[in-house]
């Protein structure tokens, strides 16, 4: 017993130090401790490698908050235009900000998938954006807004998406970032991307990689069709029927479609 008490007395300081460093520190404590010197392979970080605002002798002002880590090109560009700021420049900036916001709103959220599962997460994502979905072994299309739909907010077995209609996808259509929400939909056979102007060769290549083994019907009429899009269709091994915009006088697209017909004679191509 005495030996055990002795060991406890010896390990008590180590245990206290371990607890001190394992517990989360408050923001006030971190600021009080100050910035610790950066070491590389045990040696102090070279002065010339530091950002100029952190070097000794450099003048610091209130504007240094904009360049504390790395100068933001957007902020520097905006500040350079202040003397010649026009109404059109403000409109262009607002348009760019809206586009960036829409891209962020369509991003794939791992936390949502972890909570709902891939199929239910996709159901929430697409129906919230005015799309329609149809589940496996069902003939009823599910559509509406978040206030009227009665979709589970936790994972429920049995929700397998078989068809998605993105024709009415709001704000100009689905983007490359939004197409990632189609991943892990093993039963997806029917997909309409009609008149989604942001769908291009990169988007179709993503669809081919994610859903090429299950997708049987695909409508890409009204999308940004190019030769690379035709090559992406070749990678969709389960595809049986595809609807696309008539290539017209585009000889490159006509040649690519001819090659697609030769490579996949079982594939029905409807050019509208």
Task: Describe the protein's architecture and organization.
By secondary structure, this protein is an alpha/beta fold. It has a domain at 103-271: Leucine-rich repeat, LRR (right-handed beta-alpha superhelix), CATH 3.80.10.10. Helix content is 39%, strand content 11%. It has 9 helices and 9 strands. It has helices at residues 2-22, 27-33, 73-80, 87-105, 110-116, 118-128, 201-211, 227-234, 251-263, and strands spanning 39-40, 43-44, 132-135, 141-142, 161-165, 190-192, 217-219, 241-244, 268-271. A 7-stranded mixed sheet has the order 4-3-5-6-7-8-9, covered by helices on one side. It has a two-stranded antiparallel sheet with strand order 1-2. β3 (132-135) and β4 (141-142) form a beta hairpin. α5 (110-116) packs across α6, α7 packs parallel to α8 (227-234) and α8 packs parallel to α9. The N and C termini lie far apart (89 Å). This is Mitochondrial ATP synthase regulatory component factor B. It comes from Spodoptera exigua.
């Amino acid at each position: 017993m005495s030996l055990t008490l002795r060991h406890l007395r010896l390990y008590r300081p180590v245990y206290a130090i371990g607890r001190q460093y394992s517990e989360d520190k408050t923001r006030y404590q971190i600021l009080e401790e100050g910035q610790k010197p950066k070491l590389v392979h045990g040696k102090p970080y070279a002065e010339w490698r530091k950002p100029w605002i952190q070097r000794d002798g450099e003048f610091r002002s209130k504007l240094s908050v904009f360049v504390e880590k790395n100068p933001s090109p957007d902020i520097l560009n905006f500040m350079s235009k202040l003397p010649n700021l026009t109404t059109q420049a403000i409109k262009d900036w607002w348009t760019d900000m809206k586009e960036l916001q829409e891209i962020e709103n369509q991003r794939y959220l791992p936390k949502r998938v972890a909570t709902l599962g891939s199929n239910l997460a996709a159901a929430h994502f697409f129906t919230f954006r005015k799309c329609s979905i149809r589940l496996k072994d069902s003939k009823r299309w599910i559509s509406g807004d978040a206030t009227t739909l009665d979709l589970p907010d936790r994972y429920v077995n049995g929700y397998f998406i078989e068809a998605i209609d993105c024709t009415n996808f709001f704000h100009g259509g689905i983007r490359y970032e939004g197409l990632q929400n189609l991943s892990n939909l093993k039963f997806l056979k029917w997909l309409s991307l009609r008149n989604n102007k942001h769908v291009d060769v990169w988007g179709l290549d993503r669809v081919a990689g994610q859903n090429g083994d299950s997708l049987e019907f695909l409508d890409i009429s009204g999308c940004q069709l190019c030769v690379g899009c035709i090559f992406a269709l070749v990678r969709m091994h389960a595809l049986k029927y595809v609807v696309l915009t008539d290539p017209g006088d585009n000889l490159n697209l006509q040649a690519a479609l001819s090659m697609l017909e030769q490579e996949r004679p079982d594939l029905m191509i409807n050019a509208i």
